[in-house]
Structure formats: structure tokens, C-alpha cells
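Table S2 (continued). Query chain:
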Amino acid sequence: MAKESLHRVVVVVDENSNPFELGCATEIFGLRRPELGRDLYDFRLCAAAPATRMRDGFFTLTGVAPLEAVDEADTVIVPNRPDTETPRPPAVLAAIRRAHDRGARLLGFCSGAFTLAEAGVLDGRRATAHWQWADAFRARFPQVKLESDVLYVDDGDILTAAGSAAALDLGLHVVRRDHGAEVANAVSRRLVFAGHRDGGQRQFVERPVPPIPDDSLAPLLAWAQERLDRPLTVADLAARAAVSQATLHRRFRAELGTTPLAWLTGERVALACRLIERGETRPDVVARRAGLGTGTNLRTLMRRETGLTPTEYRRRFGPR
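Corresponding output:
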């Protein structure tokens, strides 16, 4: 595929930007993908100044495109910086507004929500930001519908991630949205990072560490993922873990931020998506192999979890 035909992702780097989120964007959108046999994006960095000091002066970034590169982007990743009260440069905010006005997709990682809100594009919209800044964000931007207990928010053409590592969650979600679950899983494997983390950032809010932490749920999850096509229930999971259903529910909430049933349903829908991407066209077969029962149930749950019916998902992500 010619590079000119690829979806163009442009990262705006501002004074005091966080290097970690810049690295996340580069890893997900900027690397070549020989394991897939094709590149996924045309990726570039830009800045308003020829030399930009990164967070706390760790290093100075030079040799990137000028800010005008934003005007050619399909997706713009806006600056994020820990000094959230420092006004963003007017030229950067103007570039973000221009991109939004012409229909470009906007992404904000961690404190990037402050940049989007300061640009005025989040008024009346849903967004998230790091839990440490939630109160300050609400006080400063009351017109934004902040969701402080999630890892990321997809509000259509504006997407925001809650924290530094959540930039990976949001980035993989964008790849999944653009290229399907199979490609997103390949990217996550290369990152050695979960393709989808259940729950929200409430599980990371500071609280006392229990003196005797629970054993990890990982062995149980792996066991269940190998049996998704079977009539597996929450009671089966509890029996496998040798705990009551109430205890299992508490452990899922504490470790994953979700319920056993919601996790099981999400895994089954993800399996159904992979089956469709690999060429299975019969809804009843997909439903049976994914443990979702009937084609009707498959349609209902896929629309709820992905926003697409099986037919729409096949049209977008099925084999060409």
C-alpha cells in the first residue's frame, strides 16, 4: 500500500510534553509492521518551535515537522503535559480547532484532555483524564462531561485516555476500530500488552495495600478463555477457583474492575469478532463457537459491545 493512501496520524509535541505518551504513540502508530505484511499508518511528529524541551528538560526534541503538519492529518494526537495549569500556545490551540472543524479525529492522552478542553472542542462532550486531576478538571471545565473511572472514552471523533499507560489502551482501541480485532491483537502481542484491559482507572486510585493480597485471577482467566465455546457460567468459574460466586465477584471487581459475567461476555464477543475476521460468515456458527448461543444473541451482544452488527462488522473487517 502506498504511504500516501494510509491514514495519517500526527502527534503535536509541546513544551514540557511527556516522553512516555510520545513513545506510546510511536509504538502503536509509527512502527513498521512486517509481521502484518503492511504498514497501518502514515505517522509523523510536529511542533510549534524548531526545538522543544520535553518534560523537566529530560531532552530537547528537534528535527520534526512544523505545526502546519496538523492541517494534513486524519488523526491528531494533542499535547499532554503535567503542568496542566500552564496555558497552551495559541498557535497549538488554533491548529487543534482547525483540525476539529474539518473533521479530523482528535486524541488526548492523560492530561491531553486539558489541551482539548482549552481549545474549546470538548464543550458538552464526554472525556476522561487522570484520576489525580479529575477535581481540578471539573472545576476548570464544568461544561465537559468528565468520566473519571474509565481507562479511556471514545466519543466518536474525540477520544481521551485516563493516564500514561492508558494511552496504550486507547491506541489499541483505535487500531481495533480502524483495522479490526485481529490486527489490534497482533499489535498488542508485539507490545507484550493486553489487547483489552477490562475495568477502569478506579482500580488504580491510591488506597491502602491489603496485608495479604489475593492470588491473581490469571490462571482462571486462561482456563476460561480455552473453553469459551462451552456452556461456561459464572458458577463454573467460581467452582474452578474454589470460591463462592460472591467471593469471585469481589475478586473480579478488585482485580479487573468488572464482573465475571461482563468479562465472560466481552471475551466471547471478542472471539466472535476474530471468527468473523477469519472468514466465518454463518451467524449461528459464530455464535456457537463463541459460546453466545444463537445468531440473535450474537447480533444483540455484538452491537452492544462493538457498536456494529455481525454483518456490519464483516463488511468492515472481514477478509477482502
